[in-house]
Amino acid sequence: MAWLHTWAGLTLGWLLFLMFLTGTAGYFDTEIDRWMQPELPRAQTDLEATDTARVLLARLEKEAPEAERWFLRLPTGRNQPYPEVFWQGASVDAGASAASDSLQLNGKTGETFQARDTGGGQLLYQMHWRLHYLSRTQSDVIVGFATLFMLVALISGVIIHKKIFKDFFTFRPGKGQRSWLDAHNVLSVLALPFHLMITYSGLVFMAFSYMPLVVAAHYGIDGDARSQFIADVFEPPGLVEAANEPAALVPLTGLIARAERQWGDGRVRSIDIRHPGDRNARIILSENTEQSVASNAGRLVFNGVNGELLHTVPSASSTARGARDLFIGLHEGLFAGPVLRGLYFFSGLLGTGMIATGLLLWAVKRRQRAETAAGSENRGLRLVEKLNVGTIVGLPIGIAAYFWANRLLPVGIDGRADWEVHILFITWATMLLYGTFRPTNRAWIEALSLAATAFALLPLVNALTTDRHLGVSLSQGDLVMAGFDLAMLVIGALWAVIAWRLMRKWFPESSDQRTPRHWFKSQGLVRSTK
Q: What is the mean pLDDT of the chain?
């Protein structure tokens, strides 16, 4: 089991580090989105649903005539701070701006927000399971294997810890390999229930991709089989094909009032209109589930012409569906308030640290063996050491570069959002290469110092490039913008502390020469104790 734990963790450890780090950042994706689009106003979650729906519908009638589908997203809370519209199958010949598109709108005026193009926090969140440059099929396979390896490493880790509760309280600093093992144990045990939940629920999240034969056994393997399965399980009942006979759409005000009587005020999250302007139009209202752990929402299906309620769809149509939605809801954490969201974030950081210390522990143990044993240099050990520097510190530096690019790239440049993420990966690749050409200890110190500088200077870059600097945000009570800047300062300080401590440990003479005491001693102002 110890062998299995070691190699399951090491084999895909750097990929798991990427998944945990970007997934952890995703718990604050909405806040990161806001910082990366400083032109946006504060959230519009205080708008009335009926007024907002009327404004959005008017914009859709203008932008997407003769569409197959209109979709209105109302601002309901932290996870949906601004109104959005989406449409499919519109007629460009009839004056539509595009056959399919989406817009983020001002709920008061219906005008499009003018904000810079960016991947935002949503891109970091998606990166932990899409891996960005790969196709969905490729990323599903790779992430699936990595998640299985993570689950094996967790279970085998529990088995090999004979004194798991003692390990929770044991940390012996300054003891080399023993210290790394203690750190790995503490980080692993402290949030073990979270690690097991997030790993297993990640497998549940894409179970249909990992186990396609389950669907094939019931629906067949022809081209339409999977689409039929998705429609049966996830689409609301009562949907029909267009009749191709024009008919006026029923006002949305009465439907929203009907839904709020059942769910409560402000609980309508979205309005899905199929075949608007057709005799067979259907209007589906979905419930806001921000306060619920289960990810699936209750829905009401109305006749789009006369407003008759056709179907009431519960949030969970079966026990299996309810269990799946519960695991997905726990994984995403969209229900979490500020305190619980902070706990999710902290647990994610512990998981990231657990993976990092495991990778470091492997290298430290074998470095000590290599130094005591005669023979040639272990190339596998050198590779792991270089990958550790380039990923454990290099990837965070790449994320900092992603934020820097958001502020420094010209706002109107084509493909701006793509270039932000290109810069992230270019920076990460540069750090991987840099680590291969520097002595390992020096590479750690220099990379950590760069990480400290990159994060700590972000508030300054923000102040120089926008009018939303930390002082303004604090004076206006804008906790999202201010919180991001303060978080960057804290992260930069943590990197700086780690760099300083390693400098004192590995290069005591050079680090001592940087202290004020050394300067006073060199000037003859302090008597030597030797």
A: 89
